[in-house]
Amino acid sequence: MKLYDSNTAPNPRRLRIFIAEKGIEIPTEQVDIGKLATRSPEFRAINPLGRVPVLELDDGSRIAESIAICRYLEALHPEPALFGTTPNEVGVTEMWIHRVEYELAQNVFHCFQNTHDYMKDRQQQVPEFGDLCRDRANAFCGLLNERLGEAQFIGGDHYSMADISAQMSLDFGKVVKVRAAENHTNLQRWHKEVSTRPSAAA
Ligand SMILES: N[C@@H](CCC(=O)N[C@@H](CS)C(=O)NCC(=O)O)C(=O)O
């Protein structure tokens, strides 16, 4: 098994956090996004979308998409469960995974891609769209704050993939001013807690 990884990028980081929480080790190969290695014909043969992370299995097959890779690893290493255990936990956790993905993570990424100087020469930017995405991501932080007023973690009583995706999104979101507001005390409490887990260093 081999993981195509990139130390500085947020999607690979959520996978690294997941791997650290599972306590497993996977050999990695760094792909230099800064030098456009993800866009080379060689890498596009590995993932036609030209993105990391990608997990290469021993039979040569490959899984891209960070959450799909986490699902695969969860099936191989069920403990600790990071997608829920009971039917209720699985359903509620999945609901929050999707909400975090579409309302927070994707808005953070769109904002970065459309407003940040790093992306200026890498793609066409529509700054107004990026600004709208920032507003949407920050608005969703309000909903997360409410949720974290009623539960310790986003999925409920247990730390899960929903927390990992939100943690990755907020840590990366700082770069484009997506963050917990001063009155988001529940979200701030949660962020402090997840940031002290050893996996946060991933
Ligand atoms: N939906 C994918 C997104 C992967 C993605 O966008 N990866 C970025 C790094 S965070 C990438 O490889 N970008 C390469 C590039 O822009 O050339 C996932 O969850 O893994």
In words, what does this structure look like?
With 202 residues, the protein is of the alpha+beta class. The protein folds into two domains: 2-76, Glutaredoxin, CATH 3.40.30.10; 87-201, Up-down Bundle (Glutathione S-transferase Yfyf (Class Pi), Chain A, domain 2). 53% of the residues lie in helices and 6% in strands. The chain is built from seven helices and four strands; from the N terminus they run E-H-E-H-E-E-H-H-H-H-H. It has helices at 10-22, 41-46, 66-76, 87-115, 127-150, 161-173, 185-195; strands at 2-5, 28-30, 54-56, 62-64. A four-stranded mixed beta sheet has the order 2-1-3-4, covered by helices on one side. Helix 1 runs parallel beside helix 3. Glutathione (GSH) binds at residues 9-11, 33, 38-39, 50-53, 65-66.
Helix content: 40-55%
Order of helices and strands: EHEHEEHHHHH
What ligand molecules are bound, each kind once? glutathione
Largest beta-sheet characterization: 4 strands, mixed
Choose one word for the global shape. Answer: globular
Spatially, the strands of the biggest sheet line up as 2-1-3-4
Structural topology:
Blueprint lengths: L1 E4 L4 H13 L5 E3 L10 H6 L7 E3 L5 E3 L1 H11 L10 H29 L11 H24 L10 H13 L11 H11 L7
Parallel strand pairs: 1-2
Antiparallel strand pairs: 1-3, 3-4
Helix pairs in contact: 1-3, 1-6, 4-5, 4-6, 5-7
